[in-house]
Amino acid sequence: MMREGSQFDSKQYGSKMEELLHQGQGGDASEEFFTSYDEVCESFDAMGLQENLLRRIYANGFEKPSTVQQRGIVPFCKGHDVIQHAPSGAGKTTTFCSAILQQLDYGLVECQAFVLAPTREVAQRIERIMRQLGEYLGVKVHACIGGTSVREDQRILASGVHVALGTPGSIFDMLLLSNMLRKRFLCPDHIKMFVLDEADEILSSGFKGQIYDIFKLLPSEIQVGVSSTTMPPEVLEITRKIMKKPVRVVVKREERTLDGIKQFYLNVEKEDWKLDTLLDLYETIAITESVIFVNTRCKVDLLTNKMRKMDHTVAAINGDMDQDTRNSIVREFRDGWFRVLITTDLHGCGIDVQASLVVNYDLPTQPENYLHRIGRSGESCRKGVAISFVTRDDESVLLDIQRIYSVNIEELPANVADLL
Predict the structure, then answer these.
(1) Rounded to an integer, what distance in angstroms lies between the CA atom of residue 332 and that of residue 340?
(2) What domain range is 69 assigned to?
(3) In this protein, which residues make up the domain named Helicase C-terminal (predicted)?
(4) Residue 214: pLDDT above 60?
């Protein structure tokens, strides 16, 4: 089940926002506060991103930007303040990470962006995303953990970072300590971007005062980004106080559910062992229809060839195919011409395939795609089983998925054949 907090009404959001902005002001306060921005980029190539950032985005398995990414990356790259209001897993964090990486001056090894998170764990997840996307750019990023790691935080910050992340408490403590010790290991002078990720959870944790304390220390010409799953009054208030004519990106919650889906993971010690594990799995169970998701097009071809050699009836789809070809293959799959469909993520192609078994040969690079892959649309009452292959490198991704969707994914039992 998705968390209750991820369910929202965009109309209610709009009315709440306008109500707040009209308080004590004229009737056109809302229009004056927001910047009108209608540009939608349906591909990463169209966003004007640096080549090394674009390469890493595609290397991470991203093929098509999510709705919030289509509307949120470019305005932030162009210097606008941006408010993102979208469900968990919609790609909000990746939106801001990509836009921050695009704007950093990599020749200046000074902290240029603060990203605040509600918990240490979320800060570390953002750090991981930032490192992955910025690998070819040489980004230096650090999540301040605090506690017993204060000295280590100081050492890393003193060596020079482009981006510092942490809870408002840990970032504010580092700023105070840096000023008090006169070591300047975390200096706000070069900060040009300030982002609150999961702002609703930050504020519900009691960090409101520290957000304002940090904001007061920043240069006056600061760019602000806010992302939030829900839009309580506290978030509306803070956006009004720290943002300047922001672009508003609102994405409705998709009506899909994980209800009725039995979800399991299967430990695979090495990436190279996945193929044999998959073939063993298909020898064990009798399947009427199944979909196998991978993150790269070359894996689509590899698995298709291997499974056909094992006499499985297999169809394959990848992003290079035109829409008519994809639709034709999906129709044949639904009509029973093939029992196995191997594909990269399909939601960006306008295709929805629901099968009794879904295998995540690769875990999705974007948490939202987990719901797209295995979830059921509102009108569907079909049950199903989802099995995700997990290597050691995937363990943190699996934890993120469980946290975002509030699900418990158990290890695949030995009697897997009885589940189908």
Answers:
(1) 11
(2) 31-251
(3) 260-420
(4) yes
